[in-house]
Amino acid sequence: MQPFELSLTEASRAVRAQELSPVELTESVLARIAAVEGRLGAYVTVAADAALAAATRAEREISGSGPRGPLHGIPMALKDLIDAEGMPTTASSHVRAGHVAEHDSRVAERLGAAGAVLLGKTHTHEFAYGLTTPQTNNAWDHSRVAGGSSGGSAVAVAAGGATFAMGTDTGGSIRVPAALNGVVGLKPTYGLVPRTGVTSLSWSLDHVGPVTRTVQDAALVLSATACHDPRDPASVAGPVPDRFPGGDLRGLKVGVPRNHYFDRVTPEVEESVRGAIERLAELGAELVDVEIPMARYIQAVQWGLMVPEATAYHERSLRAVPDLYAADVRILLEAGELTSAGDYLRAQRARTMMRDAWARMFDGVDVLAAPTVPMTAAEAGREAVEWADGTTEAVSDSYVRLCAPANITGVPALTLPVGHDRAGLPIGMQLMARPFRDATVLRVGRVYEESVAGAGRLAPVAA
């Protein structure tokens, strides 16, 4: 096994035992990037020299005073919305050409303090405003979309081009590409991981979180990055999970949605996810049927919040350099100018009602289990999907539909791989819990992961 094939947990164990040096690990991951990047397009920038210098420092520190923690010497990537001092933050857009970050984001600062090694910046759908990341190819099938907007982060991790990566999630942008590329993605509770120094899409929906190979890896990254930051008005001093016991799930109630989450999904996705839910029952969980409240309003509330907030953020540059935006993003930003204040306020009121209704739903269950996305990775360029009930839906609308509720309500949401379709493409299951029960979704995910074979498997990308 090559070092790039190790999960974060495995690599950390080897580094701390001084069986593997951070330099050897980083060199292996950089070689993997060089071998597969031409077909995948996961990275905007690869800072190889800086990464090797950081790995050398980490090796010296670990040999001297010992490791700072589990991320010390581990090579990782940042989505190109997340500032790292001295590196470009382009948001994968011509609008940001020439931009160089003057300071670290709070997340980059925390990861640097933990001793992680920054490899570079990964592609996003332009300004995170899309669900496909067209610059990047799916790690399992290069003819299909990577998912978005954190497509580069998910593909890098799935292909062995980063031991872990950070993404952002406004309507599924961590979970969608993680599910489509067969890796783990965590959208923490709103405000648990600070967004200072992170380019915004929609301030009231934006989250920062990890993309990893295993659930245990995601737990390690969350522990390092969660903190209170007064510079982020949404930041909260919530509980930072530090223990994620395995074992069984006895005494835990898992909600199984009667509506919304299994409406208009492919048979293969439904079969895999329901099979995984049954596995949770075999591990001791009690399954409880639940009704998803206000399901008919989810799409309207998501777009009613996101579109005007995104347009407000881009107001000046949209007027100054509109032609520098990609056509799909520019249309959405211009549409936001037509949204009235009354529409935005109604969306905010509906969000409050939805949060309250979801809190009542969680009075009866500990975790909600459901598909992450209704179908596997679509062919690149495909614009719509036709469902068995005769309805037609845009591909992007399809991918956001099952992820948006967790952004609207702010609850923690974890996706992990639970199978493949007939074409061999990954299928993801989503686990959600009430706010600040991040440890609960991680525990359930870890227990499931430990009960099945193949956890942490890399995508079959030939070098």
Distance between the termini: 14 Å
- Helix and strand composition category: alpha/beta
Q: Report strand order across the widest sheet.
A: 1-3-2-4-6-5-12-13-9-7-8
What share of the residues does DSSP label as strand, in percent?
5-15%
Quaternary structure annotation: single chain
Tell me the name of the CATH class. Alpha Beta
pLDDT under 50 segments (min length 5)?
none
CATH topology annotation:
Amidase signature (AS) enzymes
Describe the global form.
globular
Order of helices and strands: HHEHEHEHEHEEHEHEHHHHEEEHHEEH
CATH architecture: Alpha-Beta Complex
Number of separate structural domains:
1
CATH superfamily: Amidase signature (AS) domain
How many helices in DSSP terms? 15
| Helical coverage, percent range | 25-40%
